[in-house]
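Weekly modeling sync, notes
Attendees: S.R. (lead), two postdocs, one rotation student

Agenda item 3: backlog of single-chain predictions. S.R. asked that every request posted to the team notebook include the full sequence so nobody has to chase files. The rotation student volunteered to paste the first one in as an example of the format we agreed on. Action items at the bottom.

Example entry:
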Amino acid sequence: MDEHYNALFRELLTYMMGDPRTIGACTHLLFMAKNLERIGDHATNIAETVHYEITGDEILGDRPRAMPTAEDESPTPNLSTDTH
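Predicted structure, as returned to the notebook:
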């Protein structure tokens, strides 16, 4: 899920930079994609709980993650309106 979200984030960011008229629609799509990514995280939590309930073995350690999300890698834009 993380890899799909990262790819979509980058693609939508490219569209928004290329045509500012797409910012509204792309922002909505980004929110939807982020929520789907969170659903994947919740599904993983449920699977780990079910695994524990059935086997009695806790899954130790961090979950493997392919990469940080695109949000984590993107620099924060400077939104300051101060001109001096």
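Discussion: group reviewed the output briefly. Residues 67 and 75 are 16 Å apart (CA to CA).
Action items: rotation student to repeat for the remaining queue; S.R. to check formatting next week.
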